[in-house]
Amino acid sequence: MTNPINLAFKNAKNENRSALISYTVCGDNNKKTSLDILKSISKNLDIVEWGIPHNCPTADGKDIQNSSYRALKNGMKLKDVFKLVKKYKKSKSSKPLILMGYYQMIFNYGEKKFIKKCKEVGVDGLIVVDLSYPDNIKFSRLCKKNSICFVQLIAPTTSIKRMKDILRISDSTIYMISMISTTGSALKVTTRKIMKNYEIIKKLSPTKNVIIGFGITEKTIGKLKSADGLVVGSAICKEITRSLKSRQNPVINVVKLVSKLKKKIIWTGLHV
Q1: pLDDT truncated to tens, each residue of the chain (272 aa)?
Q2: Which of 29, 100, 112, 135 could covalently link to 127 via disulfide, CB atoms 3.0 to 4.6 Å apart?
Q3: Among this protein's residues, is 60 annotated catalytic?
């Protein structure tokens, strides 16, 4: 059975564009709003990524940290994340879902138990930020056994040898970090350099779906739209924060933002 994530990439390629992937924190700013946002923006997305709120999200900048803190402040637990995932996946608007988290939480829950629960509620893919190769080989195999796509990370500093090793054991999707920084930082490298790094991965493994994340905004997304997929997270979390501070409806405002992002990745001319 083909993983829904692979089908999403295939559909985007058939439409001659990048797959658009959102990142939001599950439970921000409360369970209802979080679910409403995800369901409402899904029509303009190919894949959704939901972050498990964490009290020390080391890979994330202030925008996603704020989202995590709001969710935790409102009492979000891992069991609540699973419940919301199940509700989302049962909705008519649902898209393939990648769950992102940190390893300590998974370790405390129990690896096998965690993966089993993910499969039960409908999780299609997993990103574990602080579980890198080769320490993630066993976990990756467990995911594959349960038909869950384990998304490996490749950074700008990853050597070619290590890159080949990661690609050899990886599932169908690779997450390419655009720059060495936390999420939400302004791009410190040119989009041309990012695409050059992207092409290196694609040459090594042409069949893998390579998504680019970190620093993707309304301003930069158009210059990266030849990638297989693009993840926008901090820009969305920032809009949620802005909406809440302005006492505006975050659902309406995030829908508008994602709609604009979708338009930026549509090729207006012939793209080969």
Answers
A1: 689 999 999 999 999 999 999 999 999 999 999 999 999 999 999 999 999 998 876 666 789 999 999 999 999 999 999 999 999 999 999 999 999 999 999 999 999 999 999 999 999 999 999 999 999 999 999 999 999 999 999 999 999 999 999 999 999 999 999 987 555 455 668 999 999 999 999 999 999 999 999 989 999 999 999 999 999 999 999 999 999 999 999 999 999 999 999 999 987 544 43
A2: 100
A3: yes
Measured CA to CA in angstroms, residue 107 lies from 70, 92, 182 at distances of 24, 33, 23
Catalytic annotation on 15?
no
Q: What is the pTM of this model?
A: 0.94
Structure tokens at 34: 């979080």
**Active-site choice (28, 60, 80, 239):** 60
Domains in the chain (CATH in brackets) are: 4-264 (3.20.20.70)
Residue 219 CA to residue 254 CA, distance in Å, equals 16
Q: Which two tokens stand for residue 185?
A: 């930082």
User: Considering 28, 46, 49, 171, which one is annotated as catalytic?
Assistant: 49
